[in-house]
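Hey L., structure's done. Input below.
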Amino acid sequence: MLLTEFQLISLLQTTLLGLGGLVGVLWLNSFFIRRISVRYEIRARSCLARRAHDKALAAFFISVVYLALVQLSAIALWGLALVSLRIVDDPVRAMLFAGSCYTTIGIISDIASERWSMLPIFIAVSGIFSFTISTATVINMTPLFRRAWFEKHAKRIRAMVEAEGIDLSDADISDQVRSLLGYSGPEPDKRRSSGEGGSH
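Output:
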């Protein structure tokens, strides 16, 4: 069945707005998130070099808050577009609607007219990609957070490990953790190869 003129115009308008909003939101994410992660990397490494572990840990949580603010800004951007184009009259409802679609929670029913019925799909897609970028960024930031935490609690963790009689040379513990806990013994493979060499 062919689309009516009204449906065709509505589809084109929704697509243009949706793609424009998607590009704008992705640009917002790429511009700010990359800067937040780089700033955290520099800050955390500086704190670790000075053994300021609490500041390194705090820098991680502050950076995560900044990442969340970027997502809230993206929702605000969509809400502003909805109000500016008079798709939704009430700014509060526009923000709630944009946030509902962006997070894919769906707590607010579709309050846009039939003319813009496809717009929630574009808002949801922009949110999915944005959260993916943010999640990947947090994962990349985690190693420095983990290092700061282990360095801060190294003595206590080492005491717990020794109390449990755990051999730090076990292969399932990373080189970084082994180093942070002060283990300077040979690696498992090295011990095994040296043992085999001595038996011949």
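The chain has a mean pLDDT of 83. The longest helix spans residues 5-49.

-- N.
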